[in-house]
Amino acid sequence: MSIYTQIVSNVLFPLHEKLKRHDTVRVKQSLEKTQWLSSKKIEKLQIERLRELLINAGKYVPYYRVLFEKIHFNPTSINSTTDLQKLPFLSKTIIRENLESLKSERAIGLTRFNTGGSSGQPLIFFIGKERVSHDVAAKWRATRWWDVDIGDKEIVVWGSPIELGAQDRIRLLRDKFIRTKLIPAFEMSEKNLDRFIGEIKNFKPTMLFGYPSSLSLIANHAEKTKQNMNTIGIKVVFVTSERLYDHQRNMIERVFGCSVANGYGGRDAGFIAHQCPSGGMHITAEDIIVEIVDTAGNVLPAGQVGEIVVTHLSTKDFPFVRYKTGDVAVLDDRLCSCGRGLPMLKEIQGRTTDFVVATDGTVLHGLSLIYILRDIPGIENFKIIQESLDHTRVLLATNANFDESSIDTIRRGIQSRLGQLVKVDIERVNEVEREASGKYRYIVSHVNPA
Q1: Domains of the chain
Q2: Using one digit for the tens of pLDDT, what is the confidence trace for 206-251?
Q3: Best CA proximity match to 117, nearest among 266, 294, 297
Q4: What is the pTM of this model?
Q5: Of 66, 45, 17, 84, whose CA–CA distance to 286 is shortest?
Q6: Crossing angle for the helix pair 129-144 and 24-34, to the nearest 10 degrees
Q7: Helix crossing, 212-224 with 246-256: angle to 10°?
């Protein structure tokens, strides 16, 4: 670690967090100790914090005060994380309909947030300083797993309107002293890709952070234009906010000559899980309880695929209790070889809308369609939209190497998986647009997998 990085991580960033009245440093120090506890001791910590969260919610949060009385739930009776199953799920619809009554009567200085709405209507919610401190601390801990720290040079490839719109003097100053440089993920033209590669070479970052689709696009362009990126000194590439596909990981690692660390979370659900150098996708279990449920709402054991439901234990000001994320994953039943006692996700499969449904009712992961297009020469980008059981659209951006006979290959491939009578429209476009948040989605299905 350089002297400058030590000054930033030990002095300047802690001062920044203190001025914002965040308890980030203390929380990070605590997390770096608790990660080595046994799984049983971590679960005991979860139970204690869960009981505290629900007692607080029953006293000071109008929505939960009414709910607990209605279902005769006593939060002091919590003795296991499975006791959560006595409570109903929290959905985006419930939050929209009860926004004010979900605020704690004791909350001070709540900050309004919203999701990007990539799966539909954006969600508005509120976050308190405790939640911010814990989420920042969890990310900080995971960053340090990779022998990098706040203050090391970082390039962020991002596209969220919140991040890009907040470039005021304070934020610019903060980014300057922690040596973070922003590249806009919206602007991935060939001309800009050349410029981005030049910026990476000149800045010589220790780490990259951003969407896997954007970073793999930069890596692919560097490889195509024969630009050497693996001697810059990048130690790790952190990716998040989208599903990380194997071909993206392979491309990024090959071009930049370093490991890819996958992260999973969101503004609403929190910093849920992060990959360590040993490969384990560790859940931030000190702050978050993860359940996997089927379409009927039944909790599933490790190894089975279902929707992720999150209870964030640092959300007294605006509780997220049994919050349905809309994401699909599998819990692991083993512990990581790194020695941490944190539980793990075995696989993150994407959003529920990343699955398609065949005409015979078979539910298929979007990868089954992605594989049809991914390796066809001349395809720059694509997006598959399942409008209904009998109609699928493909947005297709191609270059001069594309063979027009591949159109029939794409159509036949999709029909072989979804049904021979499915209408497949191929729409040629100059560019496949990203979501409003800057994220990229290969698959969007408007058919309910249930």
Answers
A1: 358-445 (3.30.300.30)
A2: 999 988 878 988 999 999 999 999 999 999 999 988 788 888 899 9
A3: 266
A4: 0.79
A5: 45
A6: 50
A7: 50
